[in-house]
Amino acid sequence: MLEQLKKFPFGFIVCCLSFTFERLAYYAGKWGIAIFVVLEAASGGLGLTTEQGAIFSSQFVAWTYITPIIGGFIADRWVSPRLLVPVGELLMAAGWFVISRANGAGGVWLSIILLAVGTGFFKGNVSGINGRQFDNDKDTLTTAFSLQYMFVNIGSFCGTTFLTLIATQGAGYRAMFLACAVFMVIDAAWWFFGMKYLGDAGKKPFLIDNRTEDIDNANIEKDKRALTRLEKNRVVAILVLTFLSGLFWLFWYLLYMPVYYEFGPASQGGMGWANWNLGANFEMPTAWFDSMNGLLCIILAPTLAALWNKMSKKDKDPSMMTKTALGIMLLGLGVAMMVVGAGIYKSTGKPVGVWIIIMTAILMSVGEMLFSPLGNSFISEYAPKKYLGTLLGAWPLIIFFAGLAYGPLYNAMRGAFSRSFLIAAIIIFVAGALMLLFKNKFEAMIEGTPEQQKELADADAA
């Protein structure tokens, strides 16, 4: 992939580094919001409750997932995407600046609004511009977006590993938020510098730039024929998988809350159930739990892609249902690790080793990488043409609802922590096991009978 990077236009680097800077600030700040609001004022925080901290974290994640759909709609029809991107970057800079000066919940809410709107203008539009620098060759685009995904995770890893040290090693959380704002200003400056290397990509709204895929999109809108039986079955299958991915993300995001608030050290707003000390004088930021996810994604993305490709050549590539089921089951084991950690702490009265945190991060990250990057390609392959955009939009939309729900769910569960999380672990694991049990029926819905395949082929040919 790195050799391929040298062959790509410099505009590709412009877009990818823009993502790196933005994700660096986003993931450091995402962790910072959850901790800053619950720390006592004497420790540099706002002194709000853990319940409020969980809600702020939940709302921040949710709204930064839904606004890119709105920003993409605007970029499709009315405003040059390449102009929306720096507007989004500067709005995010303003958001991080506001929270660096916040003295109460109102400042946090204003910050979240600015960050959500800024993310909406930035996130999808950078990807859209990046894709338009290439011809519509599937293999080239797959390589390009795989490399972009790596740049995203590099930003995530660097932000949560290094930028968070500003907060925990003396300067404080407000200084870290201010650093996030500075990085977003740098990102905007980088974008203005790099726009000249983007060619015509993103100069006009996406739907009027006369590209082939836009003509295809217009044809999709004109496709009014009724769905065949096989297409209806595929829509149902895609919606089932989308719902199950929402279940995965609900508990995936929820897992961060006990890591921060129960297992985190008191100096970072936690209850001290785990020992985060590294040596005699260094206390790890709980953000390093986030760092592990970024690092594992960087490692696993090319590894699993190569594995699936190798297995596909031997006609042994596991189905999407199998990968999703295994991912959900691994997440269930991650939730169970929280129960194990809580049990050890409560029985001994001593903080558990950080190995509990490491195992949880590994399980949830491997679970994520088994199926999540494949969602869009699966939908693109099997969705009926006239519902392709809708079904692709539902995949991130379900994360919005998961984001809204995990904060309130965590608040409801923490009163009876061990019992609630054990029940959740069992439910998640059983859901994955049932998916494996019914995977053949699911795959039959996707592939259809010879009669259904012929019906679809005849409808397409008509």
Compact summary:
With 462 residues, the protein is mainly alpha-helical. Helix content is 76%, strand content 1%.
Share of helix among residues? over 70%
Level-2 CATH architecture of the largest domain: Up-down Bundle
Number of strands: 2
Number of domains: 2
Shape: globular
CA-based gyration radius: 23 Å
Which strand order does the major sheet show? 1-2
User: How far is the first residue's CA from the last residue's CA?
Assistant: 41 Å
Q: Provide the low-confidence segments as ranges.
A: 210-222
Main β-sheet description: 2 strands, antiparallel
Number of helices: 19
Please name the CATH topology of the largest domain.
Answer: Growth Hormone, Chain: A
- H/E element string? HHHHHHHHHHHEEHHHHHHHH
Which structural class should the secondary elements be placed in? mainly alpha
Q: Report mean pLDDT, rounded to a whole number.
A: 90
